[in-house]
Amino acid sequence: MRMETPLGRVRGLGSARTGAHHWWLERLTSIAALVLFVWFIASILRLPSLSHGDVVGWLREPLAAVPMLLLIVTTFWHLKLGLQVILEDYVHEEGMKLFSIVLLNFFVISGAALAFFSVLKIAFGGDASNG
Amino acid sequence: MHRNPSRPLSPHLTIWRWGPHMFVSIANRVTGAGLATVGAAALVWWLAAAATGADAYATFVSWATSWIGIAIGVGLTWAFFFHLLAGIRHLVMDIGAGFELSVNKFWANMTILGSVVLTALFWFLILGVK
């Protein structure tokens, strides 16, 4: 006989009221990404070239660096939510599902941190080879 | 997945006549997955190379301008514009609009057409600027 209440038995098996939150954040980050990527594409097209000097010079401006940092956070947040849904849909074995989502979180945070730090380094003028 | 094999399955993917809305639906997921993996890796590489220095940036550029880099680049930009337009379509459908069959089909087709047009326009401008 299982010494569990009916509530205890179902806990952790479903979205437990967080499904709508995930859905809502995916929409919210998509709208932010839409605005930031229109800015990004327009900025890329307006640069005189995509050479190292031009890109670094552009990212040193606060009005380029800050939207770029926001773009990184928004994009990685949005892609984490999206890839998680794909894993939840197609990885059926519970252990493998948990493992793949943990791995996804590690990759997303590592990638976002590397991109975020790179923009900060350029913005604060840390690139010695192109002073 | 636990299923009683003696019970019938509900109608699934294989019985429906294929339409543009079905392509846009699955392609939105596929382009999203591609952008989230290959696209994100390219973005991180580009920024990290720019922050590391001129030599690292030159290595990135030599890869990005090789034939395989250009093929991936064109693929990513198409995936980007497709995911962007399909995403806007989804936001409109999220507020409950655009579900009439003809309207739905029209915007599904426009999503496909628009993604190709925007990709061509983007590369035309990029190559024109350089």
From TrEMBL, chain A:
It is found in: Membrane. The chain crosses the membrane at residues 24-45, 65-86, 98-124. Keywords: Electron transport, Heme, Iron, Membrane, Metal-binding, Transmembrane, Transmembrane helix, Transport, Tricarboxylic acid cycle. GO terms for biological process: tricarboxylic acid cycle. One of its GO terms (cellular component) is membrane. The keyword Protein transport does not apply. Pathway: Carbohydrate metabolism; tricarboxylic acid cycle. It comes from the Bacteria. Its main location: membrane. It is a multi-pass membrane protein. GO terms for molecular function: heme binding; metal ion binding. It holds the Pfam family Sdh_cyt. The keyword Transmembrane applies. Its cofactor is heme. Part of an enzyme complex containing four subunits: a flavoprotein, an iron-sulfur protein, plus two membrane-anchoring proteins, SdhC and SdhD. Membrane-anchoring subunit of succinate dehydrogenase (SDH). NCBIfam families: succ_dehyd_anc. This is Succinate dehydrogenase hydrophobic membrane anchor subunit.
UniProtKB/TrEMBL annotation, chain B:
It is found in: Membrane. PROSITE patterns: SDH_CYT_2 (PS01001). The keyword Membrane applies. Heme binds at residue 83. InterPro entries: SQR/QFR_C/D, Succ_DH_cyt_bsu_CS, Succ_DH_cytb556, SuccDH_FuR_B_TM-su. GO terms for molecular function: electron transfer activity; metal ion binding. One of its GO terms (cellular component) is membrane. It is a multi-pass membrane protein. The chain crosses the membrane at residues 26-48, 60-85, 106-126. This is Succinate dehydrogenase cytochrome b556 subunit. PANTHER family: SUCCINATE DEHYDROGENASE CYTOCHROME B560 SUBUNIT, SUCCINATE DEHYDROGENASE CYTOCHROME B560 SUBUNIT, MITOCHONDRIAL. The heme is bound between the two transmembrane subunits. Keywords: Heme, Iron, Membrane, Metal-binding, Transmembrane, Transmembrane helix. Its main location: membrane. It comes from Allosphingosinicella deserti. Its cofactor is heme.
